[in-house]
């Protein structure tokens, strides 16, 4: 019985941690969504330019 309780506590802790991380990620993604999008666009563009030069 003691072990079972311990497992339940572990699951609760895991859920709390994953929820916290998910909330943080959601905050970050909403705040920096445009920045991230721009960054990826620029990176993608540069990679295409480099590939064109290799040809």
Descriptive overview:
- The protein is mainly α and about 55 residues long.
- The chain has one domain.
- It has 2 helices and no strands.
- α1 crosses α2.
- Keywords: Membrane, Transmembrane, Transmembrane helix.
User: What is the N-to-C order of secondary-structure elements (H for helix, E for strand)?
Assistant: HH
Number of helices: 2
Proportion of beta-strand residues: under 5%
Q: What does the largest sheet look like?
A: none
Please report the total strand number as a whole number. Answer: 0
Structural class by secondary-structure content: mainly alpha
Globally, the shape reads: elongated
How many structural units, i.e. domains? 1
Helicity range of the residues?
A: over 70%
Keywords: Membrane, Transmembrane, Transmembrane helix
Summarize, please:
The chain is mainly α. It contains two helices and no strands.
List keywords for this structure.
transmembrane helix; transmembrane; mainly alpha; membrane
